[in-house]
Amino acid sequence: MSSTLRTITAANARILSALNPPPKVVVVGGTSGIGQAIALAIAQHCPSASITIIGRNESAANTILPKLGPNSKFLRADVSLLSEVRAVTQKISAVDMLIMSQGVLTIAGRTPTAENIDYKLALHYYGRTLFVQELLPLLRSSPNGGKVLFILDSKNGNPSKVNWNDMALETTYSLASAANHAISFTDLVIQHFASQPENANVTFTHAYPGGVRTTLVDNLPFYLRIPAKGLLAMGVGISPEECAEYMIHGILGTDKGWRCVNEKGENISKKKPAQEEWITKVWEHTSQMISSKH
Ligand SMILES: NC(=O)c1ccc[n+]([C@@H]2O[C@H](COP(=O)([O-])OP(=O)(O)OC[C@H]3O[C@@H](n4cnc5c(N)ncnc54)[C@H](OP(=O)(O)O)[C@@H]3O)[C@@H](O)[C@H]2O)c1
């Protein structure tokens, strides 16, 4: 373990174990990979934390839950469906830290969900934003200040390449535009949330995890999966456990408002300020998409 990682891990343990009352944590995508490693690390640093993991894989959850302490639970939901996001958030009565790590890696083209939203955009962006929207009342009343972490890609968003005439990519879908819309919109929506005076007690962080050795690549077609697995086997990327400590470091940062953090959980200072107009457009579009018509 590098000395930086050792220092960060010790600081995470010190901060989390001192929280009073112990934190109530929700990890969406906590049944695998980075989300699972974050849930386990928080449980290790703060055994009295209440940790709720959300995903679809019940057998994976049953293996993880005993390691998360007596106050942990699993809520099953397909969070690509806004109706399921709405239903599952109704089952949550308190949250101090909302961590969203749900995701998929596929090269499929536009794949509409039953709600006619592209699957990847629903999972990586609209469903996550709805989680925040539904849980904001609880996050605002968090005694230590609510904290929200979006794990996606805080480094590569490019709002100047957003298709503002087809924001949900219903007619102009491409893999590159789907990726850019999800990550650029995340950059912009955290700035919207942070600008609302009623959210002054909540911090919104968008993180880039870097290359992490998880099973994310398993959905790729074999001609991409095999080389990807080869690279992972050669040790390219970091372990989910290392990534978890960096991501926890990112979410525990003390600044208020919104932040983008890199794969070490450190603030990205070179981020260009967004145009007000982009933030407004993204919020108007998003609030329409996540309204209860779905
Ligand atoms: N690993 C990397 O190198 C890397 C790099 C950059 C960005 N990221 C981003 O980091 C995030 C986490 O990646 P990871 O590597 O930890 O992936 P992972 O190991 O495949 O975990 C993905 C998680 O998302 C959940 N999930 C996927 N689809 C879902 C659905 N429809 N409903 C509910 N839960 C769903 C899975 O739960 P169930 O299986 O239980 O449904 C699982 O817990 C992703 O957003 C990914 O894009 C990862």
How would you portray this structure in words?
This protein is α/β, with parallel strands linked by helices. It is built from 9 helices and 7 strands; from the N terminus they run H-E-H-E-H-E-H-E-H-E-H-E-H-H-E-H. The chain has helices at 3-18, 33-45, 58-64, 82-89, 119-140, 175-195, 222-233, 240-252, 276-289; strands at residues 24-28, 50-55, 73-76, 97-100, 146-151, 202-207, 257-261. Strands 3-2-1-4-5-6-7 form a 7-stranded parallel beta sheet, with helices on both faces. Helix 1 crosses helix 8. The longest helix has 22 residues, at 119-140. It is globular and about 50 Å long. NADP nicotinamide-adenine-dinucleotide phosphate (NAP) binds at residues 29, 31-35, 55-57, 60, 77-80, 101-104, 123-124, 151-153, 209, 211-212, 214-216, 237.
